[in-house]
Write a structure and sequence with these properties.
6% strand; two-stranded antiparallel ribbon; single chain; elongated; 16 helices
């Protein structure tokens, strides 16, 4: 992915900022700068940028449990600040940013200020030698080699030569940054699905009305009722929730092969916990198998049947069997557990 060119700016040096990264700081630092520039700021408080870094990475770390790597302190800072500031995992970016820019909690400020010694000057390393912090500050203040901002103790000042370019191309620059960040985090989480969407989406799930009405209601109407695999309570049409067997926060999709009817109160309490496969896989599979057979027989062109084809080559029973289903689910549960998801 190439950045838009500009004849009087060293765009190739901006691209080089993300070469050989060993942490996520530069990605989130640049995204923070772009966010403030979009609001019209050109003199930006460092604390605001550090707060933006925390806010932008909040859902990725707290909700989707993406690992940033052992050396990355941003993940540690987010986890500490969540407790220190009594913030929830579903707090929105605006409220996180406001909380952190107004905080007087010394422990929170320490977490934020850690990044001052790591990223503001190092981001400028393509323009000049930046490992010497004091020298980097001095060189940046003369906009050496047309670098994008000048560094001061508590703020940065965006180079006037860069402002129009950054404002005009903010969307493309963010996409470029997220693309590079996704590639970096995919290397840290090689078996975790849908990394790109877990960088930018908030944990607001779509309702599952269609899956209920056009798939599971058909099944329950045919069977009369089914037992909840978790509580053994009887479920009937109009008296059940559609739930993700493996948490949505991990799979990041609503495909029917991972959805089952469940007791409403249990579904509310399950949150993003993982099922214990030795206890729940067999009743889960039997329910899925019965559902597939019923819907396929009554409505062979039902669109939700196509969801199964994302994991099975066909809907024939030789492919749609217990062993193959378990072979799909077991590694997903293992990886999710390794990434911090808890079991029921």
């Amino acid at each position: 992915m190439n950045l838009p060119g500009e004849s009087n700016l060293p765009i190739h040096l901006l691209s080089a900022c993300f070469n050989n990264t060993s942490a996520t700081y530069k990605f989130y630092w640049f995204l923070a700068i772009l966010s403030r520039i979009e609001t019209g700021e050109s003199v930006i408080a460092k604390n605001d940028l550090f707060a933006e870094m925390i806010a932008n990475s909040w859902f990725t770390i707290n909700y989707f449990h993406i690992s940033f790597g052992k050396q990355d302190k941003l993940q540690h800072a987010v986890e500490q600040i969540k407790a220190l500031e009594h913030l929830t995992i579903d707090a929105d970016k605006a409220s996180i940013f406001k909380k952190l820019t107004l905080t007087t909690n010394k422990a929170s400020l320490k977490e934020l200020n850690y990044f001052n010694s790591e990223v503001p000057h190092r981001f400028l390393s393509p323009w000049f030698r930046a490992d010497d912090m004091n020298l980097a500050y001095l060189q940046s203040q003369t906009y050496s080699n047309n670098c994008p901002y000048a560094l001061y103790k508590d703020k940065i000042e965006v180079n006037p030569a860069w402002i129009n370019y950054l404002q005009k191309n903010a969307r493309v620059l963010k996409d470029f940054c997220y693309w590079n960040l996704a590639m970096y985090l995919q290397s840290k989480n090689p078996n975790v699905p849908d990394i790109p969407n877990k960088l930018i989406k908030s944990p607001i799930r779509k309702n599952l009305t269609e899956q209920r009405r056009k798939f599971w209601d058909i099944v329950l109407n045919e069977l009369g009722s089914v037992d909840c695999i978790y509580t053994n309570s009887r479920l009937t049409v109009g008296n059940y929730a559609v739930e993700h067997f493996i948490p949505y926060a991990f799979v990041s999709h609503d495909l029917i092969w991972n959805l089952i009817p469940a007791d409403r109160s249990f579904n509310s309490s399950k949150n993003d916990k993982l099922p214990n496969l030795p206890a729940y896989f067999e009743p889960f599979y039997k329910l899925q198998y019965a559902a597939k057979e019923i819907v396929q027989h009554q409505f062979p062109k039902n669109k939700f049947l196509e969801d199964y084809l994302t994991i099975f080559p066909s809907l024939e029973n030789e492919h749609f069997n217990s062993k193959k289903y378990l072979e799909l689910l077991q590694p997903l549960v293992t990886i999710a557990s390794n990434n911090g998801f808890q079991f029921l």
